[in-house]
Specification:
Elements lengths: L2 E3 L21 E3 L19 E3 L17 E2 L1
Parallel strand pairs: 1-2, 2-3, 3-4
Length: 71
């Protein structure tokens, strides 16, 4: 799995293990949900693009490696 689009799903939380086993994930789209925080994404080593716009996030976890795009 390299791309995942969960836009406009009314998500309020993400389980801390939600993306375990998704080491090849490069693009994660989570815009326009109701998220207030994100689980630690440190195991998403291939993640390059993250979109969390339109959520109620108060902080972002440290992202490794740095992203090419963050919206």
């Amino acid at each position: 799995l390299e791309r995942l689009d969960l836009s406009h799903n009314g998500l309020r939380t993400l389980h801390p293990m939600a993306f375990r086993g998704s080491a090849a994930l490069e693009l994660l789209l989570l815009p326009h949900n109701q998220l207030t925080d994100l689980p630690d994404p440190s195991f998403l080593l291939s993640l390059r693009h993250l979109n969390v716009s339109g959520n109620a996030l108060v902080a972002l976890p440290r992202l490794h490696p740095p992203l090419e795009t963050l919206d």
